[in-house]
Design brief:
Elements lengths: L2 H4 L5 H28 L3 H27 L11 H21 L1
Helix pairs in contact: 2-3, 2-4, 3-4
Length: 102
Amino acid sequence: MSTIELFPPGKVFQSRYAAFALQNRLRNQLRTVSLLQHFVDQVVLMSEQSAMNEVFLRNTIQHLNKALLSTELINETLSSPQELQLAAVLVSVLLEFLRGKS
């Protein structure tokens, strides 16, 4: 899925929903990794899960970054309250991803 499909220009509410969906998936993955670390003895299984999480995190961060930089999605002047809200949501989700990744 491309960034434009995920965050379509002119569809602020759909873009916000997509950002929240990504945020929810991140939280679920972080919980899963945390549970695996406590209950799984096999290092191979944990490394496979970790690799899947890394791909998801990398792709999501790239999509969020492109969405934030897209002047089609968010005007440089943040000319409407919806654009400002969308920018705030995207920044918030990106920061949560970066905190979870470190």
